[in-house]
C-alpha cells in the first residue's frame, strides 16, 4: 500500500482494557482525518489482539488471511494491516516477518499509531513494541463522543506473576496513571455523554499515587457533576484495602458490584498458581465487604484443570462457589501459555477432564446467577439505559448490580430510570418504571 489511507476499522478482542485501547486508537485515526468503515472496506484495519488463552497467535494469522482475501474479492485490493494488543507485544516480531503486516504496535506504544501508519503508507512497514517510561496517555486526543457507560484506564500492567498468566509479559510492570490526567479524562467523558465510568486496570485496586489509593480517586471522581455511577475492574484480592471496602459503604455513586477473581478453591492449587492468597483469606475478605455493603453483587474468574489439579481439589473450587454465591462469573479451561512457569509442569490435566470440570463449574455458577437475579425481583433501583431492545419502545440497561434490565418506556439512551425489578429471565430482568406504576 502506498497511497494515503482514508478509512479505518478497529477490531478489539480480549478484555475491557483492549476495548478501551481500541476506542483510543479509533480516536487517533479519526484525529488524522480518517473515517470509520467496515473491515471489508477499510484502508487500514487494526487488529487489537488478546494473548490470554490458546491459539491466540494462530487466530491472528487466520484473521489477517481472511481480511486480505475478503477485500481482494470485494474491492480488488488488500488493506493496510496493523496488529496491536497483547499478541503484538508477545509475538510481534514473528507476525511482522511471517505475515508481512504493515504495522505492529504494542499496548504501551499505540499513541505512535498515526506515525506508523504514515510510514507504512509511504512504503516502510514498522514495528513498535516499546514500553516507554513516559505514558502514552498524554499523547492521546481528548474524548469527544462516548457511550453512557464508558471505560477509563487508570492502572496498567501486573507484578503478580501468577504462574499461568501472560499479562505481566504483555502489559509490563504495574504502573498507575497520574491522578490529574485521570480526573481530566473523567470530566471529558462526562462532557462527552458518559453517566457511568468503569475504572480499568489489570490490578485496578493497586492504583496509587503518593499515599493515595483507589478509594481516594473514587471519592474525588464522585464529586464530578453529572457522573452518576462509578465501577472498577479487575481487582486482586491482595490489593483490596480497608479504604476501598469502606468506599463501598460511603460513596453512593460507587456501584454495589465487585469482580474479584479467585481462580481456584484449593490452597495447594492457589499456591502453585502463585496467587498469594488462600481460600480462607479470600472468603474472609468477602465477609468484610459484605459487612459494609450487604447487597454487593460478587463476580469472579475461575480456571479449571490447572496442571496437577486433582478431582478433590476441583471439588474445593465447587465448594468455594457454593460458599460465596456469585452473582456472575467467568470460568475457563487452563491453557498453557508459552513462557509461563505453569506451562512447564509435566502433569497437565487431560482435555476431557477439563471439559467435564468446566461443565460442572458452569452449571453451579449459572444456578447461582439465576438465584441472585431471582432474589433481586421486587427491588427498586436505577437502570442506566445503554441500547435499544428488540421490541418497539424497548430499551436495555444495567442495574446497580450489573444485571441487564429491559423496560418499555418513553426514554432515551443515557437516561437513568427508577424501576422495580418485576421478573427474572435466564439472562436479564424486566423492569417496570416507578412513575408508570404510580400512574
Ligand atoms: N488481572 C486480572 C485478570 C487477568 S486475565 C486478575 O488477576 O484477575 C483474566 C482471567 O483470565 C484471569 O482471571 C484468569 O481466570 C484467566 N486466565 C489467565 N490466564 C489463563 C490461562 N493461561 N488459562 C486459562 N485462563 C487464564
Ligand atoms: Fe495475570 Fe495474575 Fe496478574 Fe491477574 S494478577 S493479570 S491473573 S498474573
Ligand atoms: Fe488479553 Fe491482554 Fe487483556 S492478553 S485479556 S488483551 S491484557
From TrEMBL:
Top class in the EC scheme: transferase
Gene Ontology CC annotations of this record: cytosol
Subcellular location: Cytoplasm
Reaction(s) the record says it catalyses: N(6)-dimethylallyladenosine(37) in tRNA + (sulfur carrier)-SH + AH2 + 2 S-adenosyl-L-methionine = 2-methylsulfanyl-N(6)-dimethylallyladenosine(37) in tRNA + (sulfur carrier)-H + 5'-deoxyadenosine + L-methionine + A + S-adenosyl-L-homocysteine + 2 H(+)
HAMAP family (alphabetical): tRNA_metthiotr_MiaB
PANTHER family listed in its UniProt record: CDK5 REGULATORY SUBUNIT-ASSOCIATED PROTEIN 1, MITOCHONDRIAL TRNA METHYLTHIOTRANSFERASE CDK5RAP1
Family assignment from sequence similarity: Belongs to the methylthiotransferase family. MiaB subfamily.
Stated name of the protein: tRNA-2-methylthio-N(6)-dimethylallyladenosine synthase
Organism of provenance: Sphingomonas aurantiaca
Upper lineage: Bacteria, Pseudomonadati, Pseudomonadota, Alphaproteobacteria, Sphingomonadales
